[in-house]
Fold this protein.
Amino acid sequence: MILIKKNWYFLLIWSFIVSCTANIDQINALDEKDDKATVIAKNSEIIYTENGNVKLKILAPVTKIYQNTNEPYNEFPEGITVYTFNDSMVIESELTSKYANYYENKGLWSASNNVVAKNSKGETLNTEHLFWDQKKKIIYSDDMVKITTADGIQYGQGFLSDESFSNWEIKKPVGYYYVEEKTDSIK
């Protein structure tokens, strides 16, 4: 009888220790949920509309949505392509990058790693980091930029533009190169 009682106490204590360990693992898993995406989508297409008109179309190979953080955000770890449209559904601008984030509460997009933006005038912006503030309706960068226009190529540090990339300025220009067109004369 004493042997059975000792085994019973041992089993009771052992089960308590095992159950506590499992609960600690579960608690640790809950604590780490901020680091984990709540939604992962492959080959996603996100469309934003205003008054029934498509204004923005976003294509991404992988989209990770983090909702259980103090600052919810979407991550595009394999890059992003963004098209903006006017009311006639004509593309106003196009942006590509190899990495991007979107911070919901701030309405702020961050694109990095080989960012290329093009506007309806045929101008092209190249930089390594670009922000789009949806609330202020501006795009900007503090990094080096290169803008190619029909007249030439401009370089500088920092950039500011309206969100359609049609009215822009380089904050600290460092160089401008004219593009010379060669014409072949027919004899």
Residues 2-31 form the longest helix (30 residues). Residues 1-5 have pLDDT under 50 and may be disordered. The chain has two domains: 2-32, 38-178.
